[in-house]
Amino acid sequence: MKNIILKSIITVFGIVFFYACSLKKNISANIDYQVADTVGVSYVDSVSFEDFKKEELKVKQINFDSFLKANVDIEIEFQDSVIQVTPDFDFFEYGPIVSFAKLEDNNRIFAIVCPYDYVEEVQTNVLFYELKGKQWVLISKFDNTEEVNYFKVIDLNNDGVREIHSIGYPNVNGNFNNYFYSYSKAENEFINGGGFYSGVFEFKPKQSRIEAYYMGSWYMPNIKTIYHWKNNKLIPYKEIEVGLKIADMKHSVMYIKYSENLNLDEDSLQLIYKKSYRGKKFKKFYENFFENN
């Protein structure tokens, strides 16, 4: 019980912090759901869905097949991109998620389902469906132990085809899990392209680049990482880390660690150096890391 209460408190604090930073807006649909906004797209005022009763949503097992079947006539404008459906749960509860998305300016519509089963030991599934005619067809399924807060879409490499961005719940420092899924036309399936843990990041699609800043606590380092989206995978390119040499609240000497990916066909970084963090040279290198790389 104590762990549950502690988890709830941490979750609430993290959500408040993250929302205050991002100024994320939610708008109510015309039933007991919320419609989330998306990256760089228009807001959706209201969406018609099957009117599930509030009590029915609160049971452990929700029949998502029935839910999807009730929504085979859904229409999404390309500029709206994602319609996310979250049940009206109590503030402390995680809830199942259904998102409807368009990845291209065509008639193809996908559904992303994160069911949740309220059992922490059981993995969270992320399922991808495509609407074919009047039927939702399951095309991909991933097991993911991390909770999902909501989904967005973002064109990571400016090729006109958007990727699915899975966003987790923030911790007390405002950091959260980010995972990216891309659709392969050749294989007719989604690909898990990897992710990172950060609450501050910037997409640069024309460069197929993401700049992520992990802000640690007093005992954890601060990390800036440059990623490239290549062949449907998130590849780390360069990374700088600054932290305490001894994190015991008695010492203040810091280190700086710099790593590079010498071969962008691999998804691993190689340590270039680790030195004491002092002097204007290292400070300038860290502060201007994204601008100068």
**SSE sequence, one letter per element:** HEEHHEEEEEEEEEEEEEEEH
Rounded Rg: 21 Å
Taking pLDDT < 50 over at least 5 consecutive residues as the criterion, the unreliable ranges are 1-60, 88-92
**Residue share in helix:** 10-25%
Q: Helix count, per DSSP?
A: 4
Give me the count of strands: 17
How large is the share of residues in beta strands? 35-45%
Q: Could you tell me how far the N terminus lies from the C terminus, measured between alpha carbons in angstroms?
A: 48 Å
Question: How many domains make up the coordinates?
Answer: 2
Helix/strand/pairing class, anyone?
mainly beta
Largest sheet properties: 7 strands, antiparallel
Compute the average pLDDT. 77
Strand order of the largest sheet: 1-2-3-4-5-6-7
Explain what the structure shows:
By secondary structure, the protein is mainly beta. The chain has two domains: 1-197, no CATH class; 200-293, no CATH class. The protein has helices spanning 2-22, 54-57, 64-69, 280-287; strands at 26-28, 33-36, 82-87, 97-101, 110-114, 124-132, 135-144, 150-154, 163-167, 177-184, 189-197, 200-204, 209-214, 222-230, 233-244, 254-260, 270-276. Strands 1-2-3-4-5-6-7 form a seven-stranded antiparallel β-sheet. A six-stranded antiparallel β-sheet has the order 12-13-14-15-16-17, with no helix packed on it. A hairpin with an 8-residue loop joins β8 and β9. Residues 1-60 and 88-92 have low confidence and may be disordered.
